[in-house]
Amino acid sequence: MKATVSSSILHKKVRVRELDIFYREAGPAQAPVILLLHGFPNTSHMYRDLIRDLAGNYRVIAPDYPGFGLSSRPPVSAFAYTFDHLADIMEAFIDTLGLTHFAWYMQDYGGPIGFRIISRRPELVKALVIQNANIYEDGLGPGVQEIGALQQVGDEQALHTAIVNKLSLEYIKNEHLFGAANPETVSPDSYELAAFYMSRPGMEEIQVTLFHNYGTNFPLYPVWQQYLRTYQPPLLVVWGKNDQIFTWPGAIAYQRDVPAAKVHLLDGSHFMLEEYHEQVASLMSDFMEKI
């Protein structure tokens, strides 16, 4: 069953640990909650269409992390840009909004941020929807492996160059269009806005610092896999199968730990919601109705 479309998205900010956290919200206040955690280099803007698709039947909430989008972006001298810290802030955001048992949608960076929270607070999870967010070595694409190899050998100059390249409009545009079945359906606003946010003063240092911390995610893969095996949460995986960052075997791998997981490979990119938000909303609505 496809969700009913809602007419408006609210744009809000809330104070969390001395930070202003921006978020988009739509849907009835008493409806079941879906929390959307965005990826790199995007923001909650990546969910603009999906929010509208779902908001007729769900209360949909999509925050920007510190250092991203319209949330506070303190300098690295004043804020620890680590995945542990971002997860702590998002956990505090959840508690500040009074969210207690809800569905999680996690893409890219949303995976390591979200899994840190749910593995220590499983009571928050009603269901999980995973989109191109990897917790298995099976799905690590060549770009991720390159960053990992440079970190291992300690080539700081090459690592810095590789990271800074990922902040450029050329790179961000390519990642949005690479593997898209119909590139003309991908809104230029999506990659132009992401690149604009990444070009603001101080952002290079923030994002380079966070990328340097990315390696802390890999040792936690077994912890997150154990969470899945232990709790067997209702799990829907929707994946752009042409993604060159997190490749499609990473989607199939979720069924090793949650055999009942529903996995759908769509003919799209790492940012496949640009093409398939309506299809994903329909899959989510059917999935949510059965849990």
From TrEMBL:
Pfam families in UniProt: Abhydrolase_1
Protein name stated in the entry: Pimeloyl-ACP methyl ester carboxylesterase
Stretches assigned to the AB hydrolase-1 domain: 32-275
Sample GO molecular function, one term: epoxide hydrolase activity
Lineage, opening ranks: Bacteria, Pseudomonadati, Bacteroidota, Chitinophagia, Chitinophagales
InterPro entries tied to this protein: AB_hydrolase_1, AB_hydrolase_fold, Haloalkane_dehalogenase
